Amino acid sequence: MIKQPLWPILKRRLILHLDPILLLALGMMLMAGLIVLFSATDGNWGRVMAQAANILVALTCMWLVANIPLHYLMRTAMPMYALGMVLLIGVALFGEVSHGARRWLNIGVATIQPSELMKIAVPLMMAWYFEKNEATLTLKNYFFAALLLLLPVGLIARQPDLGTAVLISASGFYVLFLAGLSWRVMGVMFVAALASAPVLWSLLHDYQKHRIMMLLDPSQDALGKGYHTIQGMIAVGSGGVLGKGYLNGTQTHLDFLPERTTDFIFAVYSEEFGLLGNIILLAMFLFIIGRGFIITANASTYFTRLMAGSITLTFFTYAFVNMGMVSGILPVVGVPLPLVSYGGTSMVTLLLGFGMLMSIHTHKTLVQT
Amino acid sequence: MKHRVELKNTQREIYYFRLRLALSIAFVLVLLFLLLTRFLYLQVVKHSHYQTLAENNRISVVPIVPNRGLIVDRNGVILAHNYSGYTLEIVPNKVADLESTIDQLAQLVDIQPKDRKRFKKLQAESHNFESLPIRNRLNDEEVARFAAQSYRFPGVEVKARLFREYPYNEQTSHLIGYIGRINDSDIQQLEDDEIASNYLGSDYIGKTGIEQSYENELHGTTGVEQMEVDAGGRGVRVLSRTPPLSGNTLVLTLDAKLQEIADQAFGNFRGALVAIDPTNGEVLAFVSRPGYDPNLFIDGIDEDSWNELNDSPDVPLNNRALRGQYPLGSTIKPFMALAGLHYGIRSPGYTISDPGYYTLAGSSHHYRDWKKGGHGMVDMFKSIVVSCDTYYYGLAVELGIDNMYNFLSQFGFGKKTGIDLEGETSGLMPSQEWKMKRYKQKWYGGDTVSAGIGQGYDLTTPMQLAFATAVLANDGVGYRPHLVRQVRHGGSKDTAIPEVKPEFNLNLNPEHVALIKSAMVAVTRPGGTAAQAGAGASYAFAGKTGTAQVVGIKQGEKYNASQLSERNRDHAWFIAFAPADKPRIALAVLAENGGHGGTVAAPIARKVMDYYLLGKAPKPDPASPSARAQSGVATAGATGAVEEPEHD
User: Fold this and answer.
1) Do the domain assignments include residue A335?
2) B46: nearest CA in chain A?
3) Does residue B638 have a pLDDT over 70?
4) Share above pLDDT 70 across residues of chain B, in percent, rounded to a whole number
5) Which of A33, B285, B369, B439 could be disulfide-bonded to B275 (CB atoms 3.0-4.6 Å)?
């Protein structure tokens, strides 16, 4: 052992728990994101470098998580969830208001957004709960799991942060679905959701209602609330089949696109690379999602299956909601394009998820033996 | 539930899980396909639509206003031009508190109360999003002071632009007119004419005079610049540019120096003068006094100046030359004499004995001659030279109003001359038909009598009378009077004057015309009614005096100028042409409340003639023309000119 050269061991330790296929796809996606960001910021290297730093931090987190054996990971579920809930209640009581929403909590050293933590903690908690009760699952368990989901979602929706609430709901629902929630219950839930829609509508903030209304007819308020959607659709549509060429998007470079480094970065990409670029992007997403499903299918335990499936589907949901809102088939709810949009927090959350996927994939042999 | 409790079948669990996973994959694929369809729709099906929207977003079409054409006189003297300068402009709806903004601006640049009033008036007439000038003609120091503070004034801007200027001020005001800011009714008119697009970006349009009637020539063609703009509307770069075409230069028929001399010849009198080249209809001078400063109107006149102009008893805004209507008075006589010859009612040698009045058969009413006691034996020649009323009372009665109407209308009386200015009035040549239509009354014999000396219903404008005089001077060949000699396109140096064709030929008998002309020359010679004004003329100066009555004098009363207030005094007429054998200039002068034509109007005509024919500018002589009418009018002239004004 001692005679063994250091580097191969280190190398082995470094890459042992990384999934090379997923890593390669993620790397390409992240590179593409930086390239688009360069255009979206009008060639601002500072912003690109800052994003690169975000990516490095996030990749490090991913590597760390990938190396955590799953039973350790499972143990974090309960405390993480509890912490998240405490922080969410804290936000509701003492949070800082910015842009009409109470999302941030000042904890002295920094301001944090607990809803980001819940993106991981909620599915983790639910998967852990199902794993714990795997042997004796009854309908009661599903209801309890649903409660675990609805509590934080309710708090987040109240902030209001519709995008995050939708994403966490989705991730929780995926756990319920994969855990085998009966079709009948889902049918009842669906009907109940439809029935409660008017009630939910009345609970929405005016600006959220506006955004949904604008989806139905963006031209209604072309300079106001419909502006985001219209300019996004113009950018995408004017891109055509081949796009206007890198750095040549007029919507982007003449400031017509709002939020073009974050929520609307897909419009920048789509304007400059066209339908062809969109197909390539969809293919890349599909590849990553496909890899996630393979990992899910091969996951060895109930917990890991639920977790891997939820992470993969949530990742897809991110991408779908973002591209859907930019291209005008979904309301503008403030969801970034995963791996591409500028921003550190969501990058860390996303790559944490992929770290878990890798951990699930690379630790299963150890668990099985 | 039961099966879950009783056994844990891992294979079965995995089977169910993978089934759900497969459903998830299908879900993902369906939604990704939905996205793909959406992209196909936006980027292929609707591509051209969004392409257009994107282009509209980024491309802003900016009109480039052309330079307005110059107006010069026949010798190239500038009558209207543009110069560049700075204005301080405010967009009212971009300014929170207009009053306090103007107060603050007043600390940087000089803003007078009249500037504020003018701005208020402009604001009332325009839309709030329009940029309106609060101050014009900023000097460099003021521009610099504002520039340093401009950040404090959003919605306020210094703009460099071209200003219109009329160097001859009131002297050409009624002729050149002025431009003013485009208002709603102008926009309506432009839209009706389907030329509104050429006015995108234009702020001004011709409002009166040549500026109005030749607007289409002067305005030029608006250019277009396609600018790439960002979302904030800031120009990024120019994509394409169609340069504007400057307006055409108008070369007028006017002689600016002659205009100036004519204007000054009026002294303090109000009135009008129109001088025409009878051989081609070119208007050489066009004076209406008093004038006004047209420069005041360009950016909206301030209230005080407006009230001053509008309330003045001199009505300076009234274009007397074009629109002022006055009875012809004795200036009708040469035309009447021609009519008598034409219809064979009078021969040159036919002589009457003038007792100083005329009576209609079966009436005791005395139609008085202006000269008490009469002129003695009067033939046609003398009737013009001494302006014998009695001669024309009889002539009119024998001619009859219908012949008078038919013959005199040929010279343009009662009709617009068709000069290239808007707003001309047509005057009035009465007829039986007209009186029936107008007053529902038949024509009386007495109407004809007074019509014979131009004191009936007849009305003419100085423009019209000058035209009639020109037709007479040119032996009955009439040219439409016009002010624009040549339209010089763009930078063209072409100086060829388009040929003008006569509009009509009255085919007058040359012998008749020669008689009238010789009598009119005698008018300015000793013994004539304008002998004083004609004294020493080195050319054959043909003329005829006239007096247009302002208030009627009752039977048995005597006109006494000193007893009438100044504004009730008679208007003085003089028509003239010279040289009589080959006339190069014909004119009509009206001096309002000037009293008698021979003493007040004729000298004005003489000065114009002297300059035009001999190049002789009058010596500055403050005494004669400037002397107010008060004492001068009714006094007798040394050369035997009339002592008393003409009257019936």
Assistant:
1) yes
2) A237
3) no
4) 90
5) B285
- Binary contact (A254, B58; C-beta < 8 A): yes
Q: Is B636 on the interface with A (CB under 8 A)?
A: no
Q: Which tens digits make up the pLDDT trace of B320-333?
A: 999 999 999 999 99
Give the C-alpha separation, A139 to A181, whole Å: 8
Place of tokens 């936006």: B42
B361–A contact, CB cutoff 8 A = no
Between residues B10 and B401, which one has the greater pLDDT? B401
User: Using the beta-carbon criterion (under 8 Å), do A178 and B54 form an inter-chain contact?
Assistant: no
Average pLDDT (B386-407) is 92
Over 90: is that where the pLDDT of A63 sits? yes
> Which residues of A fall within a CB distance of 8 Å from B46?
237
State how many domains chain A has.
1
Smallest Cα distance from B93 to chain A, Å: 19
ipTM for the predicted complex comes to: 0.92
B86 three-state secondary structure: strand
Q: What is the span of the domain harbouring residue A189?
A: 14-362
* Residue A32, in any domain of the structure: yes
The answer to the question of residue A367 being in a domain is: no
Chain B residues close to A324, C-beta within 8 Å: 35, 38
Mean pLDDT (whole number) for A285-295: 95
For B259-322, the DSSP string reads HHHHHHHTTT--EEEEEEETTTTEEEEEEEES---GGGGTT---HHHHHHHHH-TT-TTS-HHH
In a domain, A203, yes or no: yes
Distance, CA of B535 to CA of B541 (rounded, Å): 10
Residue A275 CA to residue A281 CA, distance in Å, equals: 10
By three-state DSSP, how is residue B546 classified? strand
CA distance B121 to B61: 30
Q: Do the beta carbons of residue A174 and residue B10 sit within 8 Å?
A: no
Average per-residue pLDDT in chain B? 85
Any chain A CB within 8 A of the CB of B4?
yes
pTM: 0.67
